[in-house]
Amino acid sequence: MLTKIVTFSVLTIASGQLLAAECKTTVDSTDQMSFNTKAIEIDKSCKTFTVELTHSGSLPKNVMGHNWVLSKEADMQPIATDGLSAGVDKDYLKDGDARVIAHTKVIGAKESDSVTFDVSKLAAGEKYGFFCSFPGHMSMMKGTVTLK
Question: Per the database record, which ranges form the Blue (type 1) copper domain (predicted)?
Answer without folding.
Answer: 21-148
